[in-house]
Amino acid sequence: MGAWSRDPALNNATRFSGDDGARAFLDELKSQFDVVAVTDHMKCGLATRLSQITSGQTDDFCILPGMEVNFQPEAAFGSLRIHLLVIMPEGTTTEKFGRLFYGLEGIGDDAFRKGNEEVKGITLKEWVKRVHDEGGLCLAAHVDGQQGARSRFRQTSRDVLCLISKDEMDQEEKEKAVSADLKDFLLSAGFDGIEVSRRQDKPHYRWVSVVSGEERSIPVTLTFDAHCIEDMRKTDRTTWVKMTKPSFGGLRDALKFAETRIRFAGDVPDTPSPGILGIEIIGTNGKSFFETLQVGFAENLNCLIGPRGSGKSTLVEALRYVFGYNRTLNELDSVSKLSRTILDLQRANLAESLIRVVYRTRGKDIRILEATYDPKADCTTKVFNESGDPINVPDVEASDEYPLRLFGWSEIETLGREAGRQRDLLDRLVPEVFPLLRERVELRRTLAENRKEIEKLVTELNNIQSKNNGEIRRYTEFKSDFERLNTKQVQGLFSSLDLSRGKKRVLEKVLERANVLREGLGGPDKLVLRDGLDAVLSASDKALREWWLGEEMARLGVITVETTLQGLVHQARENLESFCQLVTERVGAIDEEIASVEKDLRTGFAADASMQKIADLRVNAETRLRRVEGFRVEYLDAWERLQSHLTIRRQLSERLVSIQNQITGIRARCNKDIEQTLNRFLSSEMKVSILFVAGGDKTIFCEKVGTVLSAFGKYKVRKLPDLIAARFNPVTFVQQFLEDKVLALGGMAASIGGEQVELTMAEAARLCDQWAPFGSDEHAQVSVVLESGKRLFALLALEEVEWDDHEAILLNDRPVNELSPGQRSSAMLPLIALSETTPLVIDQPEDNLDNRLIGRVLVNILAELKEKRQIIVCTHNPNIVVSGDAEQVVVMEAVSDRQGRVSQHGSIDNEDIVKTVIEIMEGGKEAFMARSRRYGF
Questions:
Q1: Which residue, among 202, 44, 211, has the nearest Cα to 112 in the 3D structure?
Q2: Residue 217 and residue 331 in one domain
Q3: Which of 650, 678, 696 is the last residue of a domain?
């Protein structure tokens, strides 16, 4: 060990000498690993001693004795040596290892071996069988290294292949031939596994081949040669093995089911995904299906099994209710009337049930989600921490803290009928699109709010236009009348009177505002904090009234706060009243000033009756004009606010288009990778592809645009909506009207379905006449919203119509919505399982699938993904349980027609679970036999 040392003190051999040294060495191992195979070249003394020390001592740490064997294979390899790794059960003695070499020349007892001895005179297949007969495991050691089987096999095979003409086989083909030969060689030899040096080499050796007519595969582990203490701490070299407890049996089983139980460091998530740790359902008075049900879930694959009527679907529906997904049940009815069936099941089986779900969040916090089922409420869930303290979560489903994807019976198949739902699932495979999708939703919400404000302003404009019988439209008339009377000579005569009247207008405006402020304050009697409490207290018990009147009201100082507020408001009202009185007095003084000026004018006009007439007419004309000008000022203020909202709306709409373009770009960029990922799980005769049309989902827009085109006869037959949808989205089309560009649409044409479609110049002019939202009123000299806003409102509503990219799943180049339920399900399953790392609950995913699809598609998906997300499956198909290698099998049984319970639970390795699967699941025995054949045991 010294030659490899990095820290001499840490690796000092004296630290590990004697019994105390052995325990110190074991402590170093235990600090890093749960299971360790200790090996040396052709020697096993240290390994057996360490294993015997730990054997039976603990349930959380295990030393397995092993040996790296120098093996000279049969003649095909010439005189070359390969290395084999032998691992034996805990506590195996050196004598038992010695029996492996019985009858072989040149190999003495363990104590006298030097490590360079070779096993020869026996075939590789015979050697592996000898190891198996002694209860051990045999792996091809560092198969891709200098002493590995691949290196030796390739070198020897090249010598043979060189006899073939280069014209007959190029180098790449030779390499493929070597790989195929090596694969068959290793599989037929009966190895329990092979070691590779690098994590990235694993895919090159995860073969599936046919041996004796059956599919076989061989496990791959990672080479971990530790020659010093520092090497032992290289966690990137660790092979992660899933087992119930650290043991030789656990390793043996894991090697048999390597797809689900063997992982390298980079395959294991750094942090656990969120998951459901358990569920409890407490019934009431026999009204619910479960009297008391408690189920714990593993973080990987959980299978709920049992006969029909045992409560599996009821448990799924309890989860649906707790997580708030009853709100979206109506989405299922667009293609399949499932919501009524689901609600009826909930009402029948969850009546008055208390449901508790223990949930681990992404941040590893434990939360209890609790709800009492109420058929009149979609969600009643409350959230608590581990200590039982309530946590304020107004909406569990909307909080994003407790994600769950749940698909009840037959829901998966319905996904294949709608392109929109397929698009949503595809988006879940592209995390970078999530923020943009959320922003798009928020933009559309803001646009809707903006439209409501615009509608209010248009109503305000209409009301101003209607004041005094629409007098604002006489502005031009009244202005002309006044200007005709108000000559320069008259202006000079009336300048003093005009100034006095101007003063009065200013003061009256100030007085008007002061009165508004005073009324807004209200009276002191309105500032009572106890308003509305009488109804609450009268409907409550005596203890509540005594608590409030006797303790709490005094503690809060309610009376003091009321008195203080009332005093402040009273003082403010007095100040405003004094101010209003002062302004009123000033208005009175101005009135006297006006009267005096008018008297002087009348005296001056006494001798000239015509001037008196002019004076009277001028006063009347000015009064009318000032009144209408007031309406007009009010109107222009509202119009300016309307334009401000329209400007904001234009910016929002432009941002919406930009966001949609970004979403489209991301989807287009990622779809090829998604296709490759989906197809990894399908058999060769099934190919999934994605039909993608940027901005192509405008179905609703095509329908709604008919609002604008309704005046054109046969506009649908002429495909005018399709023409517009091909050239515009809702935002860009409506902007043509808001920016007065509709005439430019004349002559627009495109080929739609092989037919040339055109919007004529005359039709563009008609569109402009019928749908221009704004115009002008020459009489009032203001811009107006035409038809009291009906056109504008319709256009804004059209602008908010949703559009998106068209994305649809194709199976063998056919849209899945055109295929059978089974084909739809097989195409959608990979998409559902791959879409996220959140917990996934599926009720009977095997429905509509034949056993071939279950074995080739569903089982592969579950095995691959259960390391990355928790999966809970209700199933009647044993292949899912057995080949999926379920970590937790929950067996449910029907106690009566109206009640069920959990009878047992455990992993698929549990003998009682195996027996139950065989007994209650049709084809259960065959499922175990198929798995046995596949792994060659």
A1: 44
A2: no
A3: 650
Burial level of 523, CB count in 10 A (0-12/13-18/19+)? exposed
Cα separation, 282 vs 357, in Å, equals: 12
The CA–CA distances, whole Å, from 764 to 192, 717, 772 equal 77, 18, 11
Same domain flag for 612 and 683 = no
Q: For residue 160, what pLDDT is reported?
A: 38
Say if residue 155 is in the same domain as residue 256. yes
103/197 same-domain check: yes
Closest-CA residue to 836 (of 856, 865, 807, 857): 865
Q: What are 166's two structure tokens? A: 């280069």
Nearest to 211 by CA among 188, 181, 192, 180: 188
Q: 125-134, 211-220, 910-919: lowest mean pLDDT where? A: 211-220
Burial class (CB in 10 A: 0-12, 13-18, 19+), 640: exposed
In order, the DSSP letters of 61-98 are -EEEEEEEEEE---GGGTT--EEEEEE--TT--HHHHH
* Tens-place pLDDT, residues 715-774: 888 899 999 999 999 999 999 999 999 999 999 999 988 899 999 999 999 999 999 999
User: Dihedral, CA atoms, 856, 862, 867, 868, nearest 10 degrees?
Assistant: 110
Name every residue whose Cβ is closer than 8 Å to that of residue 926 and which is 6 or more positions away in sequence: 878
The answer on pLDDT for 659 being more than 90 is yes
Which one, of 351, 660, 349, 619, lies nearest residue 481 by Cα? 619
Domain check: are 334 and 306 in the same one?
Answer: yes
Answer for the pair 249, 241: CB distance below 8 angstroms, yes or no.
no
Residue 822 maps to a domain: no
User: What distance in Å separates the CA atoms of residue 934 and residue 932, rounded to the nearest whole number?
Assistant: 5
Residues 646 and 692 in one domain: no
Q: What is the mean pLDDT of the chain?
A: 84
Owner of token pair 């990672």: 222
Q: What does pTM read for this prediction?
A: 0.71
Structural domain boundaries, residue 315: 275-404+838-935
Mean pLDDT to the nearest integer, 839-868:
76
Kindly state whether residue 415 falls inside one of the protein's structural domains.
no
DSSP per-residue string spanning 297-316: --SSEEEEE--TTSSHHHHH
Q: For position 351, which CATH number holds?
A: 3.40.50.300
Q: Which residues contact 273 (CB under 8 A, 6 or more apart)?
A: 299, 362, 837, 838, 839, 868, 869, 870
Distance, in Å, from the CA atom of 715 to the CA atom of 709, rounded to the nearest integer, reads 7
Q: Give Dmax over CA atoms of the chain in angstroms.
A: 154
Residue 303 contacts residue 844 (beta carbons within 8 Å): no
Last residue within a domain, chosen from 600, 632, 650:
650
CA atoms within 13 A on the CB side of 92: 29
Tell me the H-state helices in 807-920: 821-834, 851-853, 859-865, 878-883, 911-920
Look at residue 61 and tell me if it is in a domain.
yes
Place of tokens 């030393």: 63
Do 699 and 639 belong together in one domain? no
Place of tokens 């992404």: 362
Burial class (CB in 10 A: 0-12, 13-18, 19+), 426: buried
- In this prediction, residue 162 has a pLDDT band, given cuts at 50, 70 and 90, of very low
Domain count, the chain: 4
SS3 406: strand
**280 with 260, same domain?**
no
How many CB atoms are located within 10 Å of the residue 601 CB? 17
Give the model confidence (pLDDT) of 15-48 as tens digits: 777 777 888 888 888 888 999 999 999 999 989 9
